[in-house]
Amino acid sequence: QFERWYNQAGTPRLLAKGSYDAKTRRYVLTLSQEYPETAFEIIGSEFREALHIPIAVGLLRSDGSSIPLRMEGDAETEVPLTTRVLELREPERDFVFESIEEEPVPSILRGFSAPVRFEMERTRETLAFLMAHDDDPVNRWDAGQQLALTLLVEATEKIQSGEAPALDTGFAEAWGRVLGDEGLDGSLRALTLTLPSERVVAQEMAVIDPEAVHAAREFFGGALGAH
């Protein structure tokens, strides 16, 4: 099944959603895989077989610490790890984590464990939390880039309409945590602190306004420094 990565063209999407039951102390992570419609248009076929996708996952407490992951069916003698590699071989599957004392924040696709397009509905607060606390540097960087890109696009739109942009305090606090984290590799810290480029921001716009994009990025750089 893993060989299908080499036999099927197109990049699959990995979709995730989670649900927590406080009574049973269970967290269910639903993972599914699909191909975007554009892949079918390019290749001319709508038939795709499910891939074998390895997905490294962690769960974080509200204080940012990692939760030992005990899954349904684990032996009692098995020592729980804080990162588990889940094997998604079906179009969709539920993965059940037990003895979870509070609703966790999921850290999914740690270390970029599979070359997929990852999609999950996450609030700005969740992205800022992951940027500030995730002990996986790849996910920490990715969460920060996603949040920064959203904020830069909004700031660009405000500048276009004549309004003054504002710095998001949640993003600023998360950015500051990365800045002060001496335990994070220097090159990774520098990469995480780098705002998305003007080219990347422009790709999110239907009509590109180079001056507004430049002004938004310059504003964020100065506002972060002042904060």
Write a brief caption for the model.
With 227 residues, the protein is α+β, with helices and mostly antiparallel strands. Helices cover 38% and strands 21% of the residues. It has helices at 4-7, 37-43, 124-133, 137-160, 169-179, 186-193, 198-202, 210-226, and strands spanning 13-21, 26-34, 53-60, 70-71, 84-88, 92-98, 105-108, 117-119.
What does this structure look like?
- The chain has 227 residues and is of the alpha+beta class.
- A hairpin with a 4-residue loop joins β1 and β2.
- It is globular and about 60 Å long.
CA-based gyration radius: 20 Å
Walk across the major sheet and give the strand order: 4-6-2-1-8
- The count of helical stretches stands at 8
Largest beta-sheet characterization: 5 strands, mixed
- Helical content stands at 25-40%
Strand content: 15-25%
Structure summary, number of beta strands: 8
Unreliable spans are 39-44
Shape: globular
Instruction: Please tell me the overall pLDDT.
Output: 92
Determine the structural class based on helices, strands and strand pairing: alpha+beta
Order of helices and strands: HEEHEEEEEEHHHHHH
First-to-last CA distance:
51 Å
Task: Compile the SSE list and pairings.
Elements: H1 4-7, E1 13-21, E2 26-34, H2 37-43, E3 53-60, E4 70-71, E5 84-88, E6 92-98, E7 105-108, E8 117-119, H3 124-133, H4 137-160, H5 169-179, H6 186-193, H7 198-202, H8 210-226
Parallel strand pairs: 1-8
Antiparallel strand pairs: 1-2, 2-6, 3-5, 3-7, 4-6
